[in-house]
Specification:
alpha+beta; signal; 4-stranded antiparallel beta sheet; 7-stranded antiparallel beta sheet; 205 residues
Length: 205
């Protein structure tokens, strides 16, 4: 069941990050950094709010192997960061992550697509969903406006807005959240050319 609490504030996720600085002159290699969705409950020292979201934030991370390293506030404050770098490097790496993923479309008995699933054995899905052209991947199949939920770092579900029954999939979403070592959120976001808005949160009935 989806407990809908619509927010009228539209925001492109990446614009939240662009208002902040990320990379110092002695920063690690560019391809080691990501901007990801992260659960607010983890209380990372450096995060940015998503308008209308109560459980999900955006965080900069350094990817070491398959492990994320979150910068401390002290390190962050002592560094000299450039907003242009996070725009360029974050977008490049999110696009690179997205390019490694192939949507798995689930259909009903009439072969009508119900939702798309993105999965990886690496914790990059929570980065890939922030790629500038993420929505373009689904325009021909799900439409120009979609619903997105990212229950863990390895999984995302994308639903069509029109004629969608995405609320019915709460058992699947909650299981992906509860069973993961690295859960993110069961909040649902609507993505369109106007940006991103929070539309609700999955809950058990």
């Amino acid at each position: 069941m989806l407990d809908v609490g619509c927010s009228k504030i539209l925001a492109a996720v990446f614009l939240l990050a662009l208002s902040c600085n990320l990379f110092a002159a002695d920063a690690p290699p560019a391809d080691s950094w990501r901007v990801i969705l992260e659960p607010k409950s983890m209380h990372r020292e450096v995060t940015w709010e998503i308008p209308g979201a109560g459980r999900t934030v955006i965080a900069p991370v350094e990817l070491e192997g398959d492990q994320y390293r979150f910068p401390s506030r002290k390190t962050w404050d002592e560094s000299h960061f450039a907003p242009a770098d996070i725009q360029r490097r974050g977008a490049i790496m999110a696009a690179a992550d997205l390019a490694t993923l192939k949507p798995n479309y689930h259909r009903d008995r009439k072969q009508v697509i119900q939702y798309a699933e993105l999965t990886s054995d690496r914790p990059i899905v929570c980065s890939a969903v922030l790629a500038p052209k993420f929505l373009d991947l689904f325009r021909d199949t799900l439409g120009d406006k979609v619903m997105l939920v990212v229950p863990n770092r390895f999984t995302a579900y994308v639903f069509p807005v029109l004629a969608s029954n995405y609320q019915d999939y709460y058992p699947m979403v909650l299981d992906a959240f509860d069973s993961s070592t690295w859960p993110i959120s069961v909040e649902v976001f609507e993505l369109s050319d106007k940006g991103m808005r929070t539309v609700g949160v999955y809950q058990s009935p």
